[in-house]
Every structure is written in C-alpha cells, then in structure tokens.
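Worked problem 6 (solution included).
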Amino acid sequence: MHHIYFIIKTPIKFIKGYIGVILKVHGMDYFAPLSSYKEKHKQMKETLDFIKVKTYSVINLNNMFPVQSKDYTYLDFSKEQDLNYKSLLESEYRYIKSIQGKIIKNASLVYKIKTSGKINPLTKRCNDFKLLEEKCRLYK
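Solution. The predicted structure is:
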C-alpha cells in the first residue's frame, strides 16, 4: 500500500498526527488525508478523487483509508498556539464544510468505481479499499 502513511514505532517525545477529513463510506469511517498545497497544484484541475481546498491544501480521495473511531481524534483549534497555523486550520475547515456534500459524493463514487473490479487510471491510483477494510476490522 504505497498510499498509506506509516509512523515508525520508536521512542519519540511526541506523536506525529495527520490532518484530514473523516467520512462515512460503505458503512465505515474513512480518513482522507489533507496534503499541503504545492506549486504543481495550481495547474492541476480537480477530478473525482482530487479536490482543492482553495490554495490551502488538497484532498486526494484515492488515498483515503478506513479507520476505527478509537484511532482518531478531532482537532481542537482553540488549543493551537501557533496563530498562523490556527488561522490556516480554521480557513481549511470553513471551506471543507462548505463543500462537504461534494466531498462525500466524490468519496462514495471513488469507492464504487474502485470496488467495481474495473481497471482504469482512477482505480490504478486508489488504495485497495476492500483489503484495507478487512485489515481495519482485524486491527485491535
């Protein structure tokens, strides 16, 4: 799974978290990670699995993966001490809320297309959702 982010388990002083969107897809919670907006994104058009969050970040729905509710927490923006980062998070959140219907619809369609068994450019770049669901259910 080259689209899944790994955290190496070593003695560390803090846990690196990932910022993203939690969606209900196929009856399971899915985490769709946010990626920083890069220069290359200016030229890219939105697609079913690629959504721009203005010029703040992007959501790659092809990289979403199932998670259990015990394995994620919601970020409390009021606890963020870096005011610039807090402002960015709040701006991203407001925009994501305004397009949440589109994100949910696209996520469901990406899932449906990937699990249809057909092979096309979209399905080639998607995580194996069925396998990840199976592994997620086994994870304790």
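Discussion: The two ends are 20 Å apart (CA to CA).
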